[in-house]
Specification:
The radius of gyration is 63 Å and the shape is flat. The chain starts with a helix and ends with a helix. It is 74% helix and 0% strand. By secondary structure, it is mainly alpha-helical. Helix 19 packs antiparallel against helix 20. Belongs to the SEC10 family. One of its GO terms (biological process) is Golgi to plasma membrane transport. Keywords: Coiled coil, Exocytosis, Transport. InterPro entries: Sec10-like (IPR009976), Sec10_HB (IPR048627), Sec10_N (IPR048625).
């Protein structure tokens, strides 16, 4: 019986080929193709076994000898499959060997082909290099041939040009011989020069002939005189005849041009203009056209211009009406130029040149005629009166005309004016006025200031009350300073308004920063002088009232040995002097307040307007700040003198009240030991009431450091005055309590000064008053508690009524010796 392997090799020959592994190879498909021939038989046997009641577990592919019922294998084809797999492995190994062999062969072939390819590429590169060299030689040859051809073409073109030029020269010589006839005889010329349909050609030839003849005459001029006389005699005749012909032809063309212009035949005008452009590049035609415009030759147009601007009132019609008239006139001029521009563009071959001539003529003739009427420069020696407008009217008209003329120049520039420098030409129209502008501006500001000061003085004289015999001298003294004579912030505001208007003109006239800065500084310096002078003079007038009040006080100071009647009269006059002093004090405080407000307005104006105009120029801003500081310092100096006088006035009245109202019994009551009077003395009440009333205006008028300095000085003077006043009295204990009450009253009042140093002094005064209250043996404790008052306390102790009786002097000596 043959073995299973032998039977499998016989029953299942394998046919594995390389083609089975090409393309989309699938192992599952290969495996299925090997075993599917055996699996159908096995499936039939499996189905037969299933009908006999036996089953084989699903997926059991293993066969065990002797297994199963009756010794039948569970999977009879297992041996065939094993044989098949072994055979397949063998064939796969063989196939791999074949593939390796083939791969090796292919590799050797590739190496051989690569070597051959590299050798071929090397040969090709050499061939390409040779080809490039050939192309370079070919390109060089082509370039050389092209250059040669171009030169030949240039020579041919030059030869053609020379041929044409020779032909034209021959023709020109023929025409030139025609003009070389008798001088002035132009009757025998060719029909070309008389045919109106060939005027352009005749003009061109005539210009060429004249240029040729003039050039020849000029060339002959450098030769010998004899040779020149012989060679150029005929050409000189030709030149003269040609000039006459050209003049005649030009006149004919201009006449035709004018006729066409009257009929508005733009095509004919254009044709004539083109022909005329051959004569002096058309300059004569352009100038002729511009000069023939009605606005330059019609006298009525010029008169209407003046009427539109000035009206019936002339320069006195006001700058607003003049500005309105200039706007109307300049709009009419711009519209006229715009219409002319349309015609010029359609007619002339070079319209920009014609527009340049037209615009220049407009500015130099028509605009200048208006400016001559408007800008009549006044004399700085005999200045026009303010009723006639003064210098300000001239400056305002100058600003209006300059501004409106600049607008017209920009409008004309937009219309078109060729290469004409319209801006420079416009500036030249105002050069004579701008050169002296700064002097006129300063003179105008000074004139306005003088007129304003005169008006204020006149108003003050008119409103000052008349002092008649029915008014007492006391009332007259109280009315010496009237409100109309005081400083007015409104007037200073008017000064600033003048200056602001002047600065606006500086900005208008000055295009360069340096010029602008210089003009602005000069104008602003005028304002500083005006404000400083006005405020200083106002403060001086207020100080005069203080001086008059002081003189009145001194006049009515009397001695002690006078009659009661004289004393009563003197007291009445002193009251009047006090009233005058109080009025003068209030008037000066109001003046100081208005000065402060005026200075604030000046500084604000400098910050908002002047500063930004000076900053671009180095040093200008700092210089103006220094000038402003000097002006303000002058005002502050006058104010400081007046404030010192105000303190003198107040203290004089305080001393008068103390001397008249303070009684000896106020501080040395005969009823000592009775219940003390806790009210302040009448003198203290009167003084505090006076100070409260008179200083009310000072609290309102003064601000900041000025207020603090004034009140501190007044507080020191008050403290000193009270000390000197109390040195005149003697005190008992009840009087000391009364004094302490007065000091408390004074201290409460000066606390409103907000001056800590003054508060401290009055607090020490309250402590000092204790020297009159304590027993003699307790005086030493006062020095121990407050050693700073020792000096004043030693003086005050001597004012005690028991100073001698209690032998306080020896007691103080022992205290001083112990200390």
């Amino acid at each position: 019986m043959p073995s299973s392997k032998a039977s499998a090799d016989t029953a299942l020959p394998l046919t594995l080929e390389l083609e089975d592994f090409k393309g989309d190879f699938s192992f599952d498909a290969l495996f299925g193709g090997l075993v599917n021939e055996l699996l159908p038989d096995f499936k039939e046997e499996e189905s037969d076994s299933a009908e006999g009641g036996e089953s084989v577990p699903n997926g059991n592919l293993r066969s065990v000898s002797g297994a199963g019922t009756g010794g039948v294998p569970l999977f009879p084809a297992v041996d065939e499959l094993l044989s098949l797999f072994k055979q397949s492995c063998k064939e796969l190994v063989d196939l791999r060997s074949q593939i390796d062999t083939r791969l090796e062969n292919v590799k050797q072939e590739v190496i051989g082909q690569d070597t051959k390819h590299r050798r071929t590429l090397g040969e090709l590169e050499k061939g390409v290099d040779g080809l490039f060299d050939s192309f370079a030689r070919l390109d060089s040859r082509i370039s050389s041939v092209g250059q040669t051809a171009a030169k030949i073409g240039d020579h041919l073109q030059s030869a053609e040009s020379q041929r044409e030029m020779a032909s034209q020269t021959i023709d020109l010589i023929k025409y030139l011989m025609e003009f070389n006839s008798t001088p002035g005889d132009l009757m025998e010329l060719s029909p070309l020069f008389s045919d109106d349909s060939r005027v352009a050609e005749a003009a061109s030839i005539a210009q060429k002939l004249r240029s040729f003849a003039e050039e020849d005459v000029g060339r002959q001029g450098v030769t010998s005189a004899v040779g020149a006389a012989n060679a150029s005699r005929g050409l000189e005749v030709a030149v003269a005849n040609l000039q006459d012909y050209c003049n005649e032809l030009e006149n004919r063309l201009l006449a035709r041009f004018d006729a066409a212009s009257q009929r508005r035949e733009l095509s004919t005008m254009s044709e004539c203009a083109k022909i005329l452009s051959q004569f002096n590049r058309g300059t004569s035609a352009m100038q002729h056209y511009v000069a023939s415009r009605p606005m330059f030759i019609d006298v009525e147009v010029m008169n209407e211009d003046i009427q539109v601007v000035l009206g019936e009132q002339g320069l006195q019609s006001g700058t607003t009406n003049i500005a309105r008239g200039l706007s109307t006139l300049y709009k009419d001029i711009a519209d006229t130029v715009r219409k002319e521009a349309a015609t010029i563009t359609a007619v002339f071959p070079s319209p920009s040149d014609v527009m340049s001539i037209l615009v220049q003529r407009v500015l130099e003739q028509r605009v200048t005629a208006i400016l001559d009427k408007l800008l009549v420069k006044p004399s700085l020696v005999n200045m026009p009166s303010i009723e006639d407008g003064g210098l300000l009217l001239y400056l305002r008209i100058l600003a209006v005309t300059y501004d409106k003329t600049e607008e017209l120049a920009k409008e004309l520039q937009s219309v078109g004016c060729g290469d004409l420098d319209v801006e420079g030409l416009t500036e030249s129209l105002f050069t004579a006025h701008k050169d002296e502008y700064a002097e006129y501006e300063q003179a105008s500001l000074k004139q306005l200031y003088q007129i304003k000061i005169e008006e204020l003085r006149a108003e003050a004289l008119q409103q000052q009350p008349e002092i008649t015999g029915t008014i007492s001298r006391a009332k007259a003294a109280a009315l010496t300073t009237s409100p109309q004579q005081q400083i007015s912030v409104t007037v200073v505001t008017e000064f600033v308004r003048w200056n602001e208007e002047a600065i606006s003109r500086c900005t208008l006239f000055s295009s360069q920063p340096s010029t602008l800065s210089a003009n602005v500084r000069s104008v602003f310096t005028c304002l500083l002088d005006q404000v400083s002078q006005y405020l200083t003079e106002g403060l001086e007038r207020a100080r005069e009232s203080l001086n008059e009040a002081a003189a009145m006080r001194d006049r009515f100071v009397i001695g002690t040995s006078v009659s009661r009647r004289v004393a009563a009269a003197a007291a009445t006059q002193a009251e009047a002097a006090a009233a005058a002093g109080e009025n003068s004090f209030k008037a000066f405080m109001i003046a100081v307040q208005r000065c402060a407000n005026s200075i604030a307005i000046l500084q604000q104006y400098f910050s908002n307007t002047i500063s930004r105009l000076l900053l671009p120029v180095e040093g200008a801003h700092a210089a103006s700040c220094e000038e402003m500081g000097t002006a303000i310092s002058n005002v502050e100096g006058a104010a400081h003198k007046g404030l010192i006088q105000c303190i003198d006035t107040v203290m004089a009245e305080v001393e008068r009240l103390l001397s008249t109202e303070q009684k000896t019994t106020d501080y040395r009551s005969p009823d000592d030991g009775v219940a003390p009077d806790h009210r302040p003395t009448n003198a203290c009440t009167r003084v505090v009431a006076y100070l409260s009333r008179v200083l009310e205006v000072a609290f309102t008028a003064l601000e900041g450091l000025n207020k603090q300095s004034f009140l501190t000085e007044l507080g020191n003077r008050l403290h000193k005055g009270l000390l000197n006043h109390w040195q005149k009295f003697t005190f008992n204990p009840s009087g000391g309590l009364r004094l302490k009450r007065d000091i408390t009253e004074y201290g409460e009042f000066v606390r409103s000064f907000n001056a800590p140093s003054i508060d401290e002094k009055f607090e020490l005064l309250g402590i000092l008053a204790n020297v009159f209250i304590v027993a003699p043996e307790s005086l030493a404790s006062l020095f121990e508690g407050t050693p700073s008052i020792r000096k004043d306390a030693l003086r005050f102790i001597q004012l005690r009524d028991d100073y001698k009786s209690a032998k306080i002097a020896s007691m103080l000596n022992s205290i001083m010796t112990e200390s």
